[in-house]
Amino acid sequence: MTLEEFEAKFGESTDPADLDRANCTRGGTCGHSQCGLCEHGTPKFLKCEPCKADLAKYAEQLAALREAARFTDAHHVKAPRGR
User: Fold this and answer.
1) Where do the H-state alpha helices sit in the chain?
2) In angstroms, rounded to a whole number, what is the distance separating the alpha carbons of residues 47 and 45?
3) Which letter, b or e, does each residue of 24-40 get, where b requires 16 or more Cβ atoms within 10 Å of its Cβ?
4) pLDDT tens-digit series, residues 25-70
5) Could you tell me the CA-to-CA distances from 55 to 21, 27, 42, 45 in Å, in that order?
6) Per the domain annotation, does 7 fall within a domain?
7) Quick check: is 19 in a domain?
8) Rg for the chain (alpha carbons), in Å?
9) Beta carbons of 76 and 62 less than 8 angstroms apart
10) For the chain, how many structural domains are there in total?
C-alpha cells in the first residue's frame, strides 16, 4: 500500500509509522499483533467495522458455549472419594 492509497482510503495519518504497520509482513506474529491488513483490506490497528461485528458475534457464541459447558467441565467436577 502506498502513502497515497492509505491517505485516500483512511485519511491523513498522524503517525508516520502507520504506513509501515499497514505494510508489515510479520502481522499476527509476536510483537506484531496490530500489523498488516485485515481480510477487508483495513490496517488492523484501525479496527474496521466488519471485523468488530465479527468479533462481537464470536464473543456471543463463545459465551453461550461456556455457559452450556459450565456444568459438564471435567475440571470443575469433583471425583468421588476413595478412588
Assistant:
1) 3-10, 18-23, 49-69
2) 6
3) beebeeeeeeebbbbee
4) 998 888 888 899 988 888 888 888 888 888 888 888 888 888 777 6
5) 21, 18, 15, 15
6) yes
7) yes
8) 21
9) no
10) 1
Sign of CA pseudo-dihedral 35, 38, 41, 45: negative
- Does 81 map to a domain? no
Q: Is 48:38 a contact under the CB 8 Å cutoff? A: yes
Grid-cell match 458475534, residue found:
57
Instruction: For residue 79, tell me if it sits in a domain.
Output: no
CA distances from 17 to 43, 45, 53, 63 (A): 12, 11, 27, 36
Beta bridge partners of 37: 43
pLDDT digits (tens, 9 = 90+) for 67-80: 777 666 566 656 66
Name the residue range of residue 7's domain. 3-72
